[in-house]
Amino acid sequence: MDFMMTKNRMAARVALALAAGAALAGCVPVALVGGAVGAGTLLMASERRSNETQEADRTIENAANEAIVQALPGRGHVNLTSFYRKVLVTGEVPTAQDRQLVESRIRALPGVQGVVNELAVMPESGPLQRSNDSLITSKVRTRLINQNGVPSGSIRVMTERGTTYLMGRLTAQEATLATEVTRQTDGVQRVVRVIDLIADPTMAGGASPAPAAATAVQTTGGSAASSPTPGVETHPVTQPTIVNAPQPIQVQPLPPMK
């Protein structure tokens, strides 16, 4: 019994010493201290969606996937991501009519508050491209988790043919930082932000940033009208008139770092 107690105490002291040394060296992110359980807890804590919103997003994704299977039986490669009831659609379809059909079916679903249609009219991507996109997404997620000041659990990451999409509800500072981290990730060719800007709690009075004017509408293959904010393209959200309606979706393509 005494031997086991001594052994346990020694193990505890070694673990504490290693943790302290790593913290002093600045090599181990706080999210990883304590093992996988600690990291998972931190990610859950940074999830800003309510349980109701999370369930709504799951329901929308399931319904949208079923609607696309019925609309495009046996053709096309379509990925759907719902976050805060806004749906990002990526992938490839054979015709412009298919592209429009997918968007109309998703907009008609209950609970959907906006659609960002990034479908390309082109042949489907192959296994190698999709595998590479998955690897890029994994790299971006890892870097966001390890980046201080980024609520990684509140950001959805999706990569399609080298373009990485960031979805979330972030402060302006968080959005900028997450964008820079993504741009500097190996393999990322372009960054598109689908972000709802929220108030920064550290600002005096908690003032909310002014929503971007919905004057520049970008469609795949088209060009945007002039925008008061350089480099920002805004997709207006089509939805019923409600009190405290959400801000327009902001989509900002950015060139890769050179």
Q: Profile the largest sheet.
A: 5 strands, mixed
Strand content: 15-25%
Low-confidence stretches: 1-8, 14-45, 206-249
CA distance, first residue to last residue? 62 Å
Computed structural class: alpha/beta
Q: What share of residues is helical?
A: 25-40%
Based on DSSP secondary structure assignment, what is the total number of beta strands? 8
Q: Could you please describe the fold and organization of this structure?
A:
It is globular and about 50 Å long. The protein starts with a helix and ends with a strand. Helix 3 runs antiparallel to helix 4. The chain has a five-stranded mixed sheet with strand order 4-5-6-8-7. Strands 1-2-3 form a three-stranded mixed sheet. The longest helix is centred in the first third of the chain and has 24 residues, at 2-25. It has helices spanning 2-25, 36-45, 51-71, 96-107, 127-145, 172-183, and strands at residues 77-83, 86-93, 114-121, 155-160, 163-170, 190-197, 233-235, 249-254. Helices cover 38% and strands 21% of the residues. Residues 1-8, 14-45 and 206-249 have low confidence and may be disordered. With 258 residues, it is of the alpha/beta class. It contains six helices and eight strands.
